[in-house]
Design brief:
The chain has helices at residues 5-12, 17-44, 49-56, 60-67. It has one domain (2-68). It is built from 4 helices and no strands. This is AsnC family protein.
Length: 70
C-alpha cells in the first residue's frame, strides 16, 4: 500500500468528492485486509469462531463464511 492510514484519513475528508471517495475506498480495503489478518492470527492462536465473531460483532456463521477455509 502506497498511502499510510493517516494520509488516507486526511484525504477522505478532502473537499474534492472524488479524491475523498478514492481515499475512503482505499481505507475500506485496508481495514478489510487488516481484519482478515487478525482473524487468521486468532484462529492460529486457537480461538473459536464464536469468540472471533463476538469480537467482530457478527454471527458465528457470518464470520466463518467470510473467513473460513475457501
Amino acid at each position: 500500500m502506497t498511502n499510510d492510514l493517516a494520509t488516507l484519513m486526511r484525504q477522505a475528508q478532502d473537499d474534492d468528492p472524488l479524491r475523498a471517495l478514492h481515499a475512503t475506498t482505499a481505507l475500506r480495503r485496508e481495514i478489510e485486509r487488516l481484519e482478515a489478518v487478525q482473524v487468521r492470527r486468532a484462529r492460529v492462536a486457537g480461538l473459536a469462531w464464536a469468540q472471533i465473531a463476538e469480537a467482530v460483532g457478527v454471527s458465528k456463521q457470518a464470520v466463518h463464511k467470510k473467513y473460513g477455509r475457501r
